[in-house]
Design brief:
By secondary structure, this protein is α/β, with parallel strands linked by helices. The chain is built from seven helices and five strands, in the order βαβααβαβααβα.
């Protein structure tokens, strides 16, 4: 098994926030895949979606995540990475996949205005529909689930760090 930790979950679940903090505590690198996509494509995510549509963006996201080859990193892909079979196979082959689980109520509280947060919904789909649809994918791919209910990001990071160090991840655990 690889030495990476990939965080999956809904937008606003804290993948980037938790990821940066966890990487620091474990002595790992942090990879924000949305930034990798923007750098490789030379465009903002919203520009890719405007030009290629949602399906075109999902193809780009799948390709970029399927080609990632990191070592001792905490990886934060976009919430829709779970639709890319090749992407998820690659990420799982390189380490542990952690699902940051939040309730629908917490999701709507954190997101506020969905459009301003960059959440793209297919026509006729609501945020609730998207949430319900993705849960099955998150649960399918997750090796570990962290329920964020009633916890702040610091508590989530502490819990996750303990679980990962117990599995031999991190500088303190003697990673190679």
């Amino acid at each position: 098994m690889g030495r990476n930790i990939t965080l999956i979950g809904m937008p606003a679940a804290g993948k980037s926030t938790v990821g940066v903090l966890l990487a620091k505590r474990l002595g790992y690198s942090f990879v924000d895949v949305d930034i990798v996509i923007q750098n490789q494509e030379g465009k903002l995510l919203k520009e890719i979606i405007a030009e290629r549509g949602l399906d075109g963006f999902l193809e780009v996201e799948n390709r970029v995540n399927a080609q990632l080859s990191e070592r001792e990193s905490v990886i934060a892909p976009g919430g829709s990475v779970i639709y890319g079979k090749e992407a998820m196979e690659n990420l799982k082959s390189q380490g542990v996949v952690v699902y940051l689980k939040i309730s629908f109520e917490e999701l709507t509280r954190r997101l506020g205005n969905v459009v301003d947060r960059g959440v793209v919904l297919r026509e006729g789909m609501t945020l609730r529909d998207l949430y319900e649809e993705r849960i099955a994918y998150f649960e399918k791919y997750a090796d570990v689930t962290i329920d964020e209910e009633g916890k702040d990001f610091g508590e989530v990071v502490d819990e996750l760090r303990g679980l990962m160090e117990a599995r031999g991840f991190g500088a303190a655990a003697g990673s190679s």
